[in-house]
């Protein structure tokens, strides 16, 4: 009997300490999520960003978990017996207020996105109303935070290398490069070969050194719903040569897509480069460096133009002389990503950073851009994106759309929440407006419809 009592005492002590630790961490992360606080250390910022991002996008889930934990402690008598538990119970009330504020701020993005859509509708002659809390679709999204593609056929792990490129990659980086240089294709059931549907060419983030094409966020599922062909691309993450190997690999993948995508129902002349974080950087670079031979060695004659660019939390300025990032982002890119010698402040390396910063690649003519960025992003400073948008509007005749999302942390759009959902719908409508006119051509014959896809896209460039 004594052993049972001792066991129960020890169990309650563990539960009490676990509750206290969880409550303290949640309180700190709620503060970080609200304020967007950052440190001078990138690794710490990454950890805080990931955790606070989940808290910011899933506050009601966190509150439900806390309520379940508290109920268990009450049923076992731990709440009544532990002063520590009772103390953190009251601190959790304060934390709950913060979580409710985070949820409200997420809901406020509906108004932001609706204004964006209202402005877009002036050009598109089509009005979209975002669903609110009274919509069953809203709660369906909210209760299922991680969405995966449905109603589509997946063609995984398609290699995009040539035999010579594979041999060179294996020699330089090992056999793993074979798997790294591959892509997945998502084809909606309603789309068939030769349908000439728009193509979303998506590159994942991960700081150029991590991540996977297999993680498909809400944007990709939304575009599959709109009957787009989605291509999710992998690239070498740990090449000994360093960056721009990643960019060159993505251009190799684009070469393959242009040759083969019509078989899957996609239009090789209607490809939009998109990506998040580092993937957003490469999407912008692809749009701004098309057909430049230094980025497509031994396939210099291949047309690598894309028709548009969509960047989510994209890196647009590697130089960041203003140090908006609060940590040594330049040094990390030069040393760990590009694997170059010397200081990031050296003239040679600064020149390299400028050459690979979309901010300094803007041309008088180009393709339509859209950027989506959270205003509390601690890894990719939002101010750099604001500067890019301002410079683009001054220097380029192509249209650019910018949606700055209230309370959005880095890559908030990878979790299905009200904030990400509204942002994704806005991005999807922008993509459909510029690159897919199928709704207004639905009464035409198929042959005429395919012909006008290209005409609509060309008109979109001049809007």
From TrEMBL:
Give TM regions: 14-34, 84-103
Q: Which UniProt keywords apply?
A: Hydrolase, Membrane, Transmembrane, Transmembrane helix
Q: Which residues form the signal peptide?
A: none
A Pfam family reported for this protein in Swiss-Prot or TrEMBL: BD-FAE
Q: Which InterPro entries match?
A: AB_hydrolase_fold (IPR029058), BD-FAE-like_dom (IPR049492), GDXG_lipolytic_enzyme (IPR050300)
Which SUPFAM superfamilies does the entry link to? alpha/beta-Hydrolases (SSF53474)
A Gene Ontology MF term for this entry? hydrolase activity
In terms of superkingdom, the source organism counts as Eukaryota
Domain BD-FAE-like, by residue range, is 183-390
PANTHER family assigned to the protein according to its UniProt record, in alphabetical order: AB HYDROLASE SUPERFAMILY PROTEIN C4A8.06C, KYNURENINE FORMAMIDASE
The protein's name: BD-FAE-like domain-containing protein
Organism listed in the record:
Mortierella polycephala
